[in-house]
Amino acid sequence: MNTDMSMVIPAIAPRLMASVTEPEPAVAIRMLVAACLDQSPALRLRQPEVKQLFARFVAALMRERTDALEAIACSVEKQINALSSRPFTPRQVRRILGITNQERLSWTRDGRLQQTGTILNNQRGQKFRVPVYCAERIGWLSQNPDMIETWRDEDARILTHEDLSDAALSS
Fold first, then answer.
1. How far apart are CA 65 and CA 9, in angstroms?
2. How far, in Å, CA of 35 to CA of 165, rounded?
């Protein structure tokens, strides 16, 4: 099973600039968006944000602001690359993978879900750290739900085995 999660995002800025000379630039840009989403599960999970970034370039193109197109294209590329590697919070992980908080905590403890660090959150003047998870790993898991089911099956077998052991000890 290939679990390599390193994805290469295509060079976006040059391709955006090349789309300007296309007969249908909007079509070329949509194809570039699709290529980015296809190559990165993490970006696919953040599809609305990705589309919003490309929309900035399209808006400048429609306003015929050719002087700013290259700078906007470079900015879009930089932000897309940052977005593709931005880690997910526990709430996002639960939503994306369809898991419970208990599963997330258990799988984090036993190493199946690995934290990539923490972020500092400030809520109502209280600062606290929130664990974050690798965007590519969560993207890969979202594309491979059978892995989540395997983990659940393993957990169920362990619980059943422990229940049988407890019953044998108490009799």
1. 26
2. 52
Please give the Cα distance from 53 to 167 (Å, whole number).
58
* Cα-trace Rg, the chain: 22
End-to-end CA distance of the chain: 43
Angle ∠(119,121,123) on CA atoms, nearest 5: 170
Report which secondary-structure segment, H or E, holds 120.
Answer: strand 115-123
Query: What percentage of residues in the chain have a pLDDT greater than 90?
Result: 42
Instruction: List the Cα angle 5/10/11 in 5-degree steps.
Output: 135
Query: How many alpha carbons lie under 13 Å from residue 161 in its C-beta half-sphere?
Result: 6
Dump pLDDT digits (tens) for 58-112. 888 888 767 778 888 888 899 998 998 899 999 999 999 999 999 999 999 999 9
In whole angstroms, what separates CA 36 from the centre of its chain?
12
10 Å CB burial of residue 113 (0-12, 13-18, 19+) is: buried
Rounded to two decimals, what is the model's pTM? 0.75
Name the residue type at position 32.
L
pLDDT at 26 over 80: yes
- Determine the Cα–Cα distance for residues 66 and 60; give it in Å rounded to an integer: 8
